[in-house]
Amino acid sequence: MSVTTELQDFILDEIAPGRAITVIDPDDDLLSRGIIDSLGVTQLLEFLRDRYGIVVAPADLVPGNFRNVRAIEAFVHARQGGPVC
Amino acid sequence: MTAVLPLRAAPPVTLDGLLDRAAATVPAGAAVACGPRRLSWSELHARTGALAAGLVTRGIEPGDAVALLAADGPQFVLGLLAIARAGAVAVPLNPAFKRPELEFCVREAGARAVLTEDSGRGVDAARELQAPATIALADVLAAGGDAPSSPAPPDAPAAFTYSAGATGRPKRVPRTHRQLAAEAGAFAAATALGPADRLFCTLPLHHAYGFGCCLLAALRSGATLVFAEEQGPLALDRDRVLALIERSEATVFPAVPFALRVLAEAPGAADLSRLRLVFSAGTLLPRATFAAFTDAFGVPPRQLYGCTEAGVVTVNLDPDARATAGSVGVPVAGVEVSVLGPSGEPVEPGRHGEIAIRSDAMTRGYAGVPDEVNHEAFPDGAFRTGDRGRLDEAGRLWITGRRKRLIDVSGEKVDPVEVEDVLAVHPRVREVVVVGAASGVQGEEVVKAVVVADGACGERELVRFCRERLADYKAPRSVEFRDAIPRGSAGEVLRKYLV
Predict the structure, then answer these.
(1) What is the pLDDT along chain B (499 residues), one digit of tens a residue?
(2) Which residues of chain B have a CB within 8 Å of the CB of A42?
(3) Chain B contacts of A61, Cβ < 8 Å?
């Protein structure tokens, strides 16, 4: 399963229940749509740690790294040194 | 020369009156600033009139409840004031609420319509509601019209808000124009707010803290409400928020301890020297957060205490901020605070007990509840907060605990009974108790469910079940499965063995 699919599934299953959202496009703005709020950030950071072994540094806690699934995937790849399949 | 609102002249006692006065006294002063957008008090006054006219045209009558679903910003301010100008009762709702929560509030309040912003989370939330009528703010404004000429009387309800109360369902809190105006006046006077002040708003305006200390405070004083144009998670936005506080030359910043901690931990620097007051409320301010914020920015956060039922109750403006950092301060004008012993008698300074409030700004009771609920909460006209504390010799209030079992999650209060009620209907849950568990950060908790399952049942399934029905902050972060809930000899749940 690709990182994109894993992130989409995680956001749909764990962060967005009850919000009438059935599809997350890789380019959907997760922040301006309110899909990821403060609690969602915490969940996502835990997911990145547990699934990919990435501990996000304070300097990396910026909107650009979490704006959409594509950005999060790029961040994962950058921290892991390459695509994860 | 800076304009000064005539605070000493008989102040208006309706939201309408306060808006009229601000528009007359500081017409060109900014009422709302949000990114490049700026709305003066006279512009806000005119738009409020037009929106109110549109509401009346759509059948809204004096006394009707109108739910307001809008993100925190200019449209929330406009919507709330227009509902008031139409003589209706505003029901500000949390756009993060899930459909069952929104439906409960709309139905319970008897809302005739739901007023929504043009786009954003409030619209998404409103779409899920099938009834009653949804009115888009932009549509009404586009139609134009003259303001209604029959202002609400001072003792008519101006707002219905909802209070978490360890009873399973939020309780409706009606407050009149006069009560809201009293809160606004007392807070503005205590903090010497004026038109030159710029209030930086990150608080939810549907919540009593943001409603009173931002919206009402600005309305009473002619100050400017400053909003971030794009409102994302603070953990990601902290550098941008700090830059905006600096750039906007904000003078007052009401916040919750979670926000103060996150900002204090930001790697970047910011010059917040224009801030003359930083407030902390929602939950007790940990000493470490007080120290970190003060050290980072040179401005000590001041605690204040309030509640949905009475608005702002006390404010700490003590000259020695560091020595009194743990206190929530002294009562604002028109408020009496007493600490009661086990029999309901006031105790001496220094003694601990339950905090009770009498206030000009306080509701006279919950609506839509059995009489005994109000008899218990408001005996003799004083509100029993359920919080515990003590008064010192100088009259300062120190909070020492909460009697009600509410869980503090990042400044939001979660009623464990409400979460238990949701989980209890899951077919695999035989028994459930919800508690607040340590989050790893002092003063912050997470919601934890302890479940006795009836057959195979997973943690993710139960968390998801809650998140479909409750705002995200109310859903458990963890579920612990046990064979039995520990109970005492009288059958009471032994919560200390569950956290």
Answers:
(1) 445 555 556 889 999 999 999 999 999 999 999 999 999 999 999 999 999 999 999 999 999 999 999 989 999 999 999 999 999 999 999 988 888 899 999 999 999 999 998 776 677 777 777 667 888 888 888 877 777 777 789 999 999 999 876 566 889 999 999 999 999 999 999 999 999 999 999 999 999 999 999 999 999 999 999 999 877 888 888 999 999 999 999 999 999 998 999 999 988 789 999 999 999 998 889 899 999 999 999 999 999 999 999 999 999 999 999 999 999 999 999 999 999 998 999 999 999 999 999 999 999 999 999 999 999 999 999 999 989 999 999 999 999 887 667 888 877 888 898 899 899 899 999 999 999 998 777 677 889 999 999 888 899 899 999 998 999 899 999 999 999 888 877 767 888 788 7
(2) 235
(3) 235-236, 238
Structure tokens at B402: 């909460």
- Kind of pairing, strands B478-481 and B445-453? parallel
- Kind plus residue range of the DSSP H or E element containing B186: helix B177-191
Nearest to B472 among A13, A33, A39 (CB): A39
Chain A hits for B230, Cβ within 8 Å: 31-32
Nearest to B418 by CA among B97, B199, B8: B97
A49 close to B (CB below 8 A): no
CA nearest to B127 within chain A: A20
**Environment class of residue B494 by beta-carbon count within 10 Å: exposed (0-12), middle (13-18) or buried (19+)?**
exposed
Closest-approach residue (CA) in chain A for B101? A18
* B235 to A42: CB separation less than 8 angstroms, yes or no: yes
Please classify residue A12 by burial: count the beta carbons closer than 10 Å to its beta carbon, then call 0-12 exposed, 13-18 middle and 19+ buried. Answer: middle
Examine the predicted complex and report whether its ipTM is higher than 0.85.
no
Closest chain A residue to the Cα of B473, Cα to Cα: A39
Q: List the single best residue of B236, B262, B465, B468 to mutate versus A (max A Cβ within 10 A).
A: B236
CA distance B7 to B197: 15
CA distance B64 to B301: 40
String of DSSP letters for A5-39: HHHHHHIIIII-TTS------TT--TTTTTSS-HH
Whether residue A63 lies within 8 A of chain B, CB to CB, comes out as yes
Give CA–CA dist B442/B23, Å, rounded. Answer: 44
Q: Give the E-state strand segments of B119-202 in sequence order.
A: 133-136, 157-163, 171-176, 198-201
Minimal CA separation from B341 to chain A, in Å: 39
Question: Which of B237, B267, B468 is closest, CB to CB, to A18?
Answer: B468
Six-digit token string for B284 = 């007790």
Hey, are the CB atoms on B460 and A39 less than 8 Å from each other? no
